[in-house]
Amino acid sequence: MPVASSTATSGRLLSLLSLLQARRDWPGALLAGRLGVSERTVRRDVDRLRELGYPVQAVKGPDGGYRLEAGSQVPPLLFDEEQAVALAVALRIAVGTGAGIEEAAARALATVRQVLPARLRQRVDALEVAAADGSAVQVDTDVLLALSSAIRATEEVRFDYEAPSRPSDGEPRRVQPHHLVVRSGRWYLVGWSAARNDWRTYRVDRMTLRVPNGPRFTPREVPGGDVATFLSARFKGSGTDAWPCRGEVVLALPVADVAPFAGDGVAEEAAPGKTRLVTGSWSWAALAAGLLRFECEIEVVGPEQLRAAFADLAGRATRAGNRSGARRVSPGRG
Fold first, then answer.
1. Class of domain 6-68
2. Which pTM was predicted?
3. Residue 119: pLDDT above 80?
4. What's the fold here for domain 245-321?
């Protein structure tokens, strides 16, 4: 009977490990069929994996089989090419999340990158991810893990909250945590406040958790069923994912100059060299002020509240420019 070469054995071990990572339970006969070997060879290969530190457990039952369990140490892992690239990309993004794992993520990325084939390394290196304004706010990793655990266990959390506009009164807040979300470099907890009988959003970097957690609760569904849409609506100051104040204007600029700065507004050509823009904001004054960043003539189509906001801003700008305390320069003087 020929003896398998060490190269063939190593390759088969990698294939076996990949299969064990792909699903929870594998009948021995099915593994043997996938690998093209006997069940006796599978048993020997499983023993070799155990010697390398992989906690492969035997599964009892009519078919018998094997299962890759979690162990006390992290053994070497095996990834296919798509998984390796996805892991490297995720680690690169994690460096800028503000989750307190930046250094560890950077070291892990360097480790993964080192073992990638050249063609995959080039794909990963081509992706440049950076914070546009460096505004990521650091949070305590232990706090993120504790909140995630409470969400999974459906346990109420108690915490002190320091907000600039509302200093803590010493009494802990009690919230039923539902979602942990990162948005624009900041982590937020979305939860149900029984005291307020409403949904609330909290910045995690302002939270100081108290222990132990509170009682278990029955999970609810956020309004609209989607946490991203719900959070976007809260930041827009409305109950739905729409700005409470929306208006329509015609700007004396070509659409190519407006579209890149339209945000979530809709820009379309109104006439040659002119753009119709429908956009919104949390107040009429904010909407008017935002439109003034376009250095051009603006025609207000509607509604009247937007027209009134422009008139109010014009009045305030005129008064600001004519303050009696402003230094005046007389004609003919330097």
1. mainly alpha
2. 0.50
3. no
4. Alpha-Beta Plaits (3.30.70)
